[in-house]
Amino acid sequence: MYDIIIVGAGSAGCVLANRLSADPNRQVCLLEAGPEDTSPWIHMPAGMIFIMRGKTLNWAYQTEPQPYLHNRRMFWPRGKTLGGSSSSNAMVYTRGHRWDYDHWAELGNQGWGYADLLPLFKRAQNQERGPSEYHGVGGPLNVADPRQRGEISEVFVRAAGEAGYPLSDDFNGAEQEGVGFYQLTQKDGRRCSSARAYLHPVRARPNLTVITRALASRVLFEGQRAVGVTYRDQAGQTVELKARREVILSGGAINSPQLLLLSGVGPRVELAKLGIPVVHDLPGVGQNLQDHLDIVIAHRECRQASYGIALSFLPSLVKGIVDYNRHRRGLLTSNMAEAGGFVKSDSAQPRPNLQFHLTATILDDHGRHLWYGYGYSLHVCDLRPKSRGYLTLKSADPTIPPFIQPNYLEHPDDLETLLAGTKVCRKILAARAFDGYRGEELFPGAAVQTDDELREFIRRRAETIYHPVGTCKMGHDPMAVVDDHLRVHGLTGLRVVDASIMPTLLGGNTNAPTIVIAEKASDLILAESG
User: Fold this and answer.
1) What is the pLDDT averaged over residues 96-123?
2) Contact 14, 82 (CB under 8 A)
3) Nearest alpha carbon to residue 387 among 355, 419, 409
4) Which domains are assigned to the chain?
5) Residue 470 pLDDT class (50, 70, 90 cuts)
6) Of 66, 161, 194, 341, which has the fewest beta carbons less than 10 angstroms from its beta carbon?
7) In percent, how much of the chain has pLDDT > 70?
């Protein structure tokens, strides 16, 4: 018997396990479907390329065919290990725009405005640059400047300035807008996942139990109160755990709504299709799915200054291995998206609506399709898409992935934003700084010039940039799943704490905000329990 059971040891779950087990009188159990985070590919920053290509540490989901993207099924990688996606992401530390959080508060979510959350961002953080109005030191999550700043990344930043865009050395300060180098969740040249930051330092606490390779299959209820969970262990046996106080779902935007539905919490009509007894008819579960759609413009590169796949790159790779093993420096500390930024597609925009990630290699199909030679790729995504999708069950079997329908580009404005973003990318890549480096444009390609041709390119090539949110949204309207204390509406003893509670998608990467959601939730839980 535990006081609290947390389902999912990802970005949010590790934070909760740390904060809630700080009281030695509170028995906390943390369940994770994946294995321990012992793989060297997790801790070496450049190793994420190998995680992306496998399934041991990656759920490797596939969406349903996308009607506005030539009916393509989209690859949705998600972390499956201690640390969740923070153990396999690009480690980019951004918080989004202050307006995003103030908008949440305007929607009726008290205590979720920017001024409310900034102290939690600072508490969570150990900013290696030192403390400031916007940054904290001494927190678990180490935030560092990149140890590797490749030549092509430097060229990109100069090119953006030449193209008329402001430059920035802090996207999380007074103003988000600008182009520069990202800060990273790294420490001493190694990944600082939420597991490394929050979980491993407290793993030996006697009141904290961590169970890996445990696939949660159902939340247990007595009436309308959550009292425990069942999970399948490595042998396929069903194990039951009980919770005195509450169950917290932290599986992310896919797994948390999936587990609610498996447990009889969700739209009655969907549950009836699979014969799942209804515990609570909650129509918003799995709805409101949002994600950042991304398009890539890629060039060959002429000076061999990028990260190439070529025999001539072997000396640089060998040096990188030596530098990493001896000093934790060099190219293997690269997150492969060293530079980027936030800009407006046009001057009429009230805030940045485009985000860049520059990869100093030819990145195609999430790195699963390799191009021989040297090149660079500029990603751009629409930060606030208007399209909304949904998630539901395919089966009552918890091992069967859910039905994921993001409905990318359903709203016509989203295509036009990506069209504008593609043109901005071309403008930057045509700047003088790239002269001498710029080779053939591989995609879209020189023949693709008209707006209609570019729209077709987007439909044919756009992919996720890995930020699904919203499927258990916070709010007080009929489609909200949790209230602003993250308690599931209509039930007791059950919360959701992860990116799925975001009412709207943030203007930036979602890892740091997810960690702060868990910091906020831990404060709320501790205040309620005394």
Assistant:
1) 98
2) yes
3) 409
4) 1-52+80-111+190-286+469-530 (3.50.50.60), 147-181+293-382+409-461 (3.30.410.40)
5) very high
6) 161
7) 100
User: What is the residue-averaged pLDDT of the chain?
Assistant: 96
Amino acid letter for position 412 = P
The two tokens of residue 154 are: 């430097």
Structure token digits, residue 404: 């994921």
**Would you say residue 530 has pLDDT above 80?**
no
As a whole number, mean pLDDT of residues 241-251 equals 98
DSSP string, 454-482: HHHHHHHH-EE-S--B-TT-BSSSTT-SB
Question: How crowded is residue 297: how many other Cβ atoms within 10 Å of its Cβ?
Answer: 24
Residue count of the chain: 530
* 3-state SS assignment for residue 78: coil
Q: Amino acid identity of 65?
A: P
- H or E element, residue 51: helix 48-53
Token digits of residue 269: 């009509």
Smallest CA-to-CA distance from 495 within 518, 514, 461, 479 is with 518
C-alpha dihedral sign at 382, 388, 394, 395: positive
Cβ contact 250:518 at 8 Å = yes
> What pLDDT, in 10s, does the model give residues 507-521?
999 999 999 999 999
* pLDDT tens readout for residues 416-460: 999 999 999 999 999 999 999 999 999 999 999 999 999 999 999
DSSP symbol at 277: P
3-class DSSP state of 248: strand
